Each structure stands twice: as C-alpha cells, then as structure tokens.
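ok so i was messing around last nite and threw this chain in just to see what happens. nothing serious, just curious
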Amino acid sequence: MFIKSLQLGNSGQLPNLTFEVLDQGTQATVLGAGTLANTVPSGSATAQVVVRGRYAYRAGIQDFQVFDVNDPETPVALSSFAAAPGEFLAVDASMAYTVNGNTLSAINVSTPSAPVLLGTATILGLGSRIVVDGAYAYLGTTRSGRYFEVFNVTSSAAMYRVGQLSLNNWSRGLVKYGSYVYSASVLSGSPLTINGLEIIDVSNPLAPVISATCTVGTDVYSLWLDGSKLYTVHGAAKYSGRARGFKVWSLSNPLVPSLLYFYDLEPTATLGYANSLVVAGKYAYLTLAGPSEVQAFDVSNPASPVLLGNMMLGQDAGTSLAPAGSYAVATSVLLVGISTYRMVSTGWTVSDLSVQAAVTALCLRAGLQPSQFDTSALAAITRPVRALPVSQVSSIRSVLEMLADCYFFGAVLSDKIY
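result:
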C-alpha cells in the first residue's frame, strides 16, 4: 500500500516498512534547482559574457572585463578595460572582439590581467551580433542599417571589410554552420515579427549571398548552434498569444531547416520572457528576463528536451549566460539606465542520487532506525533523483509520496521483526 496513513516522524511505536517497485514503466521527471555559488561586482551594465577555459570575458556598456572562474566558488576579477566596451562579444583563441554601436574592436587577451586594444574598424550600421571564425568576423546590424558584413581580422591592428550585403530586415541573431551564416531576420516595431532566417552563403567571404530564407516564428531574440541543431529563442510576453520559448531545428539540409521541437513557455507559471539559450554537452540553459530566471534542460535527444529545473536570478531585466564546466557564469543585464550590476557564478547541482539512497535518507531523517525499513528492492530503479522541489513545509510522508508517484514504488507496512 502507499504511505497514506503513516505519520513518520511522530513519537511512539513505528511500524516496519518494506519498499517495493510496483512497475518501472515510464517514470516522471523530478525537477531540480540551481544554487548560487558566488557573486563578483562587475562594472557597467553587462551585455554579454563568454567563457573560455578558466576565464570569463564580459562585455559591458562602458567597459570590458576578464574574470578567473577556475574556482567557481571564488571568481576573481582580473582586469577592467574601458577602451573597448561593447554590447556584443566574441572570443577566438587569444583575441576578444567587441561590438559597440558602429565600432568593432580587437583586444589581445593573451595576458588576461592586462588586455591590449590592437585595433578598431567601422561598421556600416549598428552592430547587433558577431561571429568570428578563423580569419574572418561576420557581423549583422540593426536600427541604422540592415547589413551583413565580413571583416578580415588576420591583422587585428588593421581589420578591414572584405564583403557585405543588404539584409531584408534587422539581424537579431547570428550563427555560422559550415559555409553558411544564419541571421534571425527581425522586422522593426512591436511585436518583433520575423520574416524568417536569412541563410547566407559565405563560401566566398568577399561575395556573400543570401541563398535561402526560412520562417521560424515571431519575437526571435537569439540563436544558438549545437552541431547540426539550431536553437531559436522566442521572447514574446506571457499571454501575448505569440511564440514564447525555444525551438530546435535540424540542419541536415542547411538550406531547409526542419522543426524538431517547440518548448512552449506559455503553459508554465513563469512570467519572464525567453532571452537567450546556450548548450553545453547534453544540457541546455534557457535564460528568461523580467524577472531573471534560468531553466535547465536535458537535450540529449534534441527532439524531446526534458526540463530538469529552474533558478531565479533576481528582478533584473535579463541575463547573459555562459557554461563553465559544472557551473554557469551569469551576468545581470539592465536595459535602461546605469546602476549596480554584478556577475554571478551559478552552480547547477545535477547529482546522481539513486532512489534507494533518497528514500533511505528520508526514512532516517524521519526517525526510523535502519532495522525498521528495507529499501533494497529500490535498487532496481536506475533513473537517478537529481533533486526534489518542496514548495512549503511538508511531512516526510508527503515527500516520500511524491517520490513514489514519480518513480512508481510503494511501501508495505508490517510487524515483521528483523
């Protein structure tokens, strides 16, 4: 029988419990939650953060900073560089590139504690995204122009434009896959409707050409590429009736992306709007703004992502997130005004705790002695308990019931003497 009448934790005579697996079948997912590891004050409003190895690079509206995050519990600010602020950032080997308005800056970060500005170049419009691949930097623009530009960055001190073309609309996201660059083509106004992806052939960087377009939905805020899978992030407000969440696309045919999955935020309780997404290994992290939140997903099967948990990061207007091993570095973003900002290192706890170990720990916490319960049969359940949310003060019995419902096991009461 399920534990419906047992008052675990009360004083008095406690019966013996034997836990049994009823049917392993399909087991529901138990949600987990992230934990805040540490915070480090940053400079001005943060626009984007990128992690490479032990270093986190942060582009701010007024400055560029480098942090040592080798010990996520104690991140260290190494340098603050006001000569090359930026709203967008790319890091390639020992070089960092920031985009600030119509200025592209190249920064040597081979010595993280002493960045050096090597050169700048002028962009045709207001830069909105940047991708660097080898000798070339690819940029999309917005507002004061609808351009796609290619710069030769072989000589950082003398970067120069080698190719350009006019886009149909603003570029809100930019990723490169093989010889193609994908630009999220956003129309101005509210809502931020989208004509689709503009797929640009850059096999000849000196003569880029739009090879195809693809409709993906409204309010695209950013793109992320993971292998041959493209993620589009849709940032509509709650109850707007427009796409809200993220979509996964297969690029098996680079010119005709095919939809694999749409994770819809609308049915969930969250009020935030999707802002950005990053993928690290089998996990994807979706950031939401207003209020700031991070949601973690298992995307080992991109056609069927599984929500693992979420974590609130405060009431800022948005976040930029970058994975760093078993941690993620998140920076607060405020879209209007300049105030106090901080950089946080958020540890996402995903431990492989077995169901047997979880039930054993709960029984011991309830006051049962090891001789009064038997959880050996639960060893047959191999799916781990990554975490378990308990939204209010609850009895051990109710927590065990939640686990039993998720993993489909039961408890048999007996007066057996062990």
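not much to say yet. Residues 1-15, 21-38, 333-351 have pLDDT under 50 and may be disordered.
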